[in-house]
Design a protein that fits this description.
Blueprint: E1 4-12, H1 18-26, E2 44-50, E3 53-59, H2 69-83, E4 87-93, H3 102-109, E5 115-120, H4 127-140, E6 144-148, H5 157-167, H6 185-200, E7 210-218, E8 222-231, H7 234-241, H8 246-263, E9 266-275, H9 283-288
Parallel strand pairs: 1-3, 1-4, 4-5, 5-6, 8-9
Antiparallel strand pairs: 2-3, 7-8
Helix pairs in contact: 6-8
């Protein structure tokens, strides 16, 4: 029996639903999802295993023009997704007209690997608009196979999955067959807490935040977690904590509920807030938080 394996890398503008699609493929909630731009900051692998295949899916940050060092590092994750792809998924949403970065767009159009262009969120549109979008993208990316989908409603997701499977090259698996992702447990704790901050706070606060889990102690029944929320200013620290600590307590309760589902164990979580001035523009701090992938 032949075995197929390959890297399937998902790219696109912010908020097109890349994380929703990968989670649908993997069947687990690996990538965090919010309505805010730049929710995904890292390149996250989700691995789907079958008897005769291994599909290594890669969710990348949304393509933006970097305004500071952290965003430049995020775009390096996107760049790396072009370099090892066996299948490239270019994801757009209905109504979108172009990719925000011309250099990345040129790489897609001249890709030497198969390109699947997915028009997402078609459940929010109508047939006439969809036909216009298909014609628009067929003209702009003539090398792509186009699939209208709704990642949220699971429409056409199985068809896309099967097409990817057909395109994978023959290869032994890249990871052990019981592997779900390349990230450690602490990464998912950090991301889950950061998701709750994106959901509970407005304006600049979520973008000035990074989370580090300093303690992850797992027993048979319980996981004890201590995590630090980094912010750039004292005023941000006060907003994160909130009046009498209520805002921080809410983040902790929401994160605990999610993490208990994810790990299947009782969670005890302690959250602290520290000021780490201008960490988003500090190369050493960014490396410490897992950025600078070059």
């Amino acid at each position: 029996m032949t075995h197929k394996a390959g890297f399937v890398n998902i790219i696109g503008n912010p908020n097109v639903g890349k994380s929703t699609l990968m989670n649908a493929f993997v069947g687990e909630r690996l990538s965090i999802i919010t309505s805010k731009a730049q929710t995904t900051r890292h390149r996250i692998l989700g691995i789907v295993n079958g008897d005769d295949f291994q599909m290594v899916l890669s969710d990348t940050p949304g393509i933006i023009k970097p305004a500071y060092e952290m965003q430049a590092s995020m775009m390096q994750f996107v760049k790396s997704a072009f370099e090892d792809a066996d299948v490239l998924i270019y994801m757009v949403e209905i109504g979108e007209q172009q990719l925000k970065d011309e250099a990345f767009f040129n790489k897609i159009v001249h890709s030497k690997v198969p390109v699947l262009l997915l028009i997402n969120k078609i459940d929010t549109s109508n047939q006439e608009k969809l036909e216009e979008q298909v014609a628009l993208w067929a003209a702009q990316v003539p090398n792509a196979e186009i699939y209208p989908i709704s990642a949220l409603q699971n429409f056409n997701v199985t068809e896309v999955f099967n097409r990817i499977l057909a395109l994978l090259p023959e290869s032994p698996p890249y990871y052990p067959k019981d592997t779900l992702t390349d990230k450690p447990e602490r990464f998912f704790v950090n991301e889950n807490i950061r998701e709750k901050i994106l959901l509970n706070y407005n304006k600049e606060i979520p973008y000035a935040v990074e989370v580090m889990t300093e303690e992850f102690i797992e027993d048979e029944r319980i996981i004890r977690i201590r995590s630090v929320i980094m912010v750039e200013r004292d005023t941000q620290k006060g907003i994160i904590i909130g009046h009498k600590g209520e805002a921080l307590k809410r983040v902790g309760m929401q994160a605990r509920a999610d993490l208990e589902k994810f790990f299947g164990k009782q969670i005890h979580i302690e959250l602290y807030v520290k000021v780490n001035k201008d960490w988003r523009s500090n190369a050493n701090q960014l490396k410490r938080f897992g950025y600078n992938p070059q």
